[in-house]
Amino acid sequence: MDSIGEILNRKGRNVYTISPEATVFEAVQSMCVRRVGALLVSIDGSPSGIISERDVMTRVILARRDPADTPVAEVMTCGVVCVELSTSARQAMAVMTERRCRHLPVVQDGRVVGMISIGDLVHWVSREQEAEIKMLTEYVQGVYS
């Protein structure tokens, strides 16, 4: 079973961050340019929250706040849940399901070294299923030894 570290090795370890003082508009611009659904809100390299598309929709748009005047710190999700490189993909999926989140920072020795999304884990599940189907097909056909 693959660990989060192995998944990050395939996908890359880019972590996109934003300051809590930045505006929501700046956060949205950054997410669009980088084609990601969330940014880690960071103070001196330490995670203090996450701002996601969902945060923008529920806490800015539906609240009729002006994204250009709203600081990220006022609408970000606090209490960031992190996983370690050694965490299994299934464990990470369970955390996301339980916490109802779509992005998890990945830490090593207390330092953020990557970000995993539900999309990354769906891709992993798909690869796992394809490999299992291939193995079972070969077994049924007598090719598997």
Average pLDDT confidence is 90
Strand content: 15-25%
The count of helical stretches stands at 6
What overall geometry do the principal axes of the alpha carbons give?
elongated
Q: What characterizes the major β-sheet?
A: 3 strands, mixed
How widely separated are the two ends?
Answer: 21 Å
Q: Unreliable stretches, pLDDT < 50, 5 or more residues?
A: none
Helical content (DSSP H or I, runs of 4+): 40-55%
Work out the number of β strands: 6
User: What structural category arises from helix and sheet content?
Assistant: alpha/beta
- Mind telling me the C-alpha Rg? 18 Å
The H-and-E topology, N to C, reads as HEHEEHHEHEEH
Strand order of the largest sheet: 1-2-3
